[in-house]
């Protein structure tokens, strides 16, 4: 049975794990990353984190927040690790460990992990949306990730749901992420009530308590998300749409509306076959390791 190393680069830490083909984690190592990073310091920590696992893996898959250049294996820059710039991540790891290395953004890795090990792993194709601080996405067909040119495809969070709508973190108005994401919910709530909420849990607790403004924001956000998904379903014709990420913990509060709005607005022929649901929240490291399993199958 093949084994793969998955590396999840987050804002404050790097996690490397060894998995078997069933997705079972056999070993792992976690290293915190300091604030004052530069390329050399970061690479040393990264290599030290992977090293204890390297002898057993048949390849290394790496996921990090974008933007990145997956053709050339470069981490271009990082919002959370400001000292990093044009880091030749793939080349450095290949040289160090003499193993094949694949590198994708973390949303794409999450999508691939869900497609391989998640709710609808037996379907032909999956559109996966990561609902969290923002909205990420990925599309996997026959076990292969669609990454787009240089690896920044399926940025569904920045597709427009409301023309001329609320300003998004990307600087443009009306992105679905402005209406259905932790950032979006908190901003909309603060606009309407001048109340600052700290996280999605607080927002969803208000919904559970029947706070009318929170309910309205969630309802409108759900419709905005449904219409972004509608557009993507017509473009991609996936067999399954799967929602993952922290916000899916509250799927009971919006899932029914979301699913029925998607189903009632897509072509009937697509609706007949489409599966929709909330997946599990698999680890980022497993998603990254799925890059190895995916390439092994090609
Ligand atoms: Zn945007």
From TrEMBL:
Belongs to the ROK (NagC/XylR) family. This is ROK family protein. It comes from Leptospira brenneri. The lineage of its organism: Bacteria, Pseudomonadati, Spirochaetota, Spirochaetia, Leptospirales.
């Amino acid at each position: 049975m093949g084994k793969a190393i998955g590396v999840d680069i987050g804002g404050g830490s790097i996690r490397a794990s060894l998995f078997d083909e069933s997705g079972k984690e056999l070993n792992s190592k976690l290293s915190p990353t300091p604030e004052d990073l530069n390329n050399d310091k970061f690479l040393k920590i990264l290599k030290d984190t992977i090293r204890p696992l390297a002898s057993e893996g048949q390849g290394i898959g790496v996921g990090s927040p974008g933007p990145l250049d997956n053709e050339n294996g470069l981490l271009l820059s990082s919002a959370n690790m400001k000292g990093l710039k044009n880091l030749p991540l793939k080349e450095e790891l290949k040289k160090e460990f003499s193993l094949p290395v694949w590198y994708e953004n973390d949303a794409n890795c999450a999508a691939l992990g869900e497609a391989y090990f998640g709710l609808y792993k037996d379907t032909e194709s999956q559109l996966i949306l990561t609902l969290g601080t923002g909205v990420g996405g990925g599309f996997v067909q026959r076990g292969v990730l669609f990454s787009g040119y240089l690896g920044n495809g399926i940025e569904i969070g920045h597709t427009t749901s409301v023309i001329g709508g609320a300003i998004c973190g990307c600087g443009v108005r009306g992105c679905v992420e402005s209406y259905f994401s932790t950032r979006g919910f908190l901003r909309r709530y603060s606009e309407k009530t001048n109340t600052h909420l700290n996280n999605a849990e607080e927002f969803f607790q208000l919904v559970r308590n029947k706070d009318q403004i929170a309910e309205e924001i969630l309802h409108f956000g759900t419709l905005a998300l449904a219409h972004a998904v509608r557009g993507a379903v017509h473009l991609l014709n996936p067999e399954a749409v799967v929602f993952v990420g922290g916000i899916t913990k509250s799927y009971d509060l919006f899932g029914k509306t979301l699913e029925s709005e998607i189903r009632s607005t897509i072509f009937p022929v697509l609706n007949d076959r489409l599966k929709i649901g909330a997946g599990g929240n698999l680890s980022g490291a497993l998603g990254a390791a799925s890059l190895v399993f995916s390439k092994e199958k090609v």
